[in-house]
């Protein structure tokens, strides 16, 4: 089963369907959260009041090339670091800037001259 972030009022998909990261509970800062509670993110604040994660049918496409595999890896690393962009994450502006830069590098990984055989950006500590 795959998950997709959707706008509740219109059912508009806000991202590509994918698997929840293994650490999804820590991304939201809650342990023991039931996946059923993900279909309404209003508890995260006003900016998330019309969003929710929903299970969708389908399978992840099988990546046939090294480029596709590398891009899927970059997207998973972006999903795994989504928590760092939440407004209430306690970190300094310097730490936030490191995460912003890390995520920028992941989004632009296909522009790297050695893609897909490049060194991956280092995740901030």
Number of domains: 2
Question: Can you count the beta strands?
Answer: 3
The largest pleated sheet is described as: 3 strands, antiparallel
Distance between the termini: 31 Å
Order of strands in the sheet with the most strands?
2-1-3
Strand content: 5-15%
The whole-angstrom Rg is 16 Å
- Overall mean pLDDT score? 84
What is the strand and helix layout of this fold?
Layout: E1 2-7, E2 12-13, H1 24-27, E3 51-56, H2 66-80, H3 93-107
Antiparallel strand pairs: 1-2, 1-3
Describe the structure.
The protein folds into two domains: 1-60, no CATH class; 61-125. It has three helices and three strands; from the N terminus they run E-E-H-E-H-H. The chain has helices at residues 24-27, 66-80, 93-107, and strands spanning 2-7, 12-13, 51-56. The two termini are 31 Å apart.
What is shown here, in short?
With 125 residues, this protein is of the alpha+beta class. It has two domains: 1-60, no CATH class; 61-125. Helix content is 27%, strand content 11%.
Features:
single chain, 125 residues, alpha+beta, 27% helix
